[in-house]
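Database export, one record per block. Field names are fixed; values are copied verbatim from the stored entry.
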Amino acid sequence: MGKSSLLVRTVREAINAGKQIAFLDFQFFDKATLTNPDLFYRQFCQLVGDELGVEDRVEEFWAKQQGNSIRATNYMQLHILKSVDSPITLAMDEVESVFDIPFRSDFFSMLRGWHNNRSMKPLWRKLDLVMVTSTEPYQLIENLNLSPFNVGQTLELRDFGLPQVKELNQRHGTPLNNAEEERLFTYLNGHPYLTRKALYLVANNQLTPSEFFKTASDSRGPFGDHLRHHLFRLQSRVELIEGMKRVIRSQSCPDESIFFRLEGAGLVRREGRVVVPRCRLYEGYFGEHL
């Protein structure tokens, strides 16, 4: 969707506004860290401090008999915020990497607490939080009143319209003619990542337009990794598989919770009163493999 690009632009504006940046990419946390809360919170605090050039005092704060969220909050308040003179933007990318950890609610509740502290404690007003995710997280937070995702400002990235697809085609040197542009838009419904990749492959002569349309839905075609990723995510969730099959067969999804989860995963969309796959590529691929 271009979410990381959006984050880069946001960080650039924060720097221009005189803020110091702590950038964390959660996909670099290894599996051992993501399954051990003590290790995760320690590394989280160490990385924030490293990004800001602050002395590492994690072991000192972790020597106290407290919960990890309290230790991390004290570390932020009593050490990092007091050590850095300028305002701070904590920019977090690939936040969905944390959605499946067993202590996710505690972690996100802590971030919600940091946000709330900004209205009550002057020191915390130095801190801005920016989180980027490719999926809707609210289904994974048990208590919405403790979620950081329903406060602050949400920027939702949308699919391209046909004029934007045409402009993007022009920026790639017009590898597609008018009919092929419209066919691409009809097939992908303006999905930003897939549209961009399709144009890149054709513009760089890795595929002809006809080869692209012929192989696009193949498991080993140009979108194979992307399609298999979504298929594997569905495999362990029977209720989502049944919901997706119903959308494909009857253009309906009576269970709103299932609809919002499928929509949040980027697989379906509402079109008037019916629910349809997000694009024809998904309809064909998942219709065959589910």
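Remark 1: The chain has a mean pLDDT of 90.
Remark 2: The chain has three domains: 3-150, 162-216, 225-289.
End of record.
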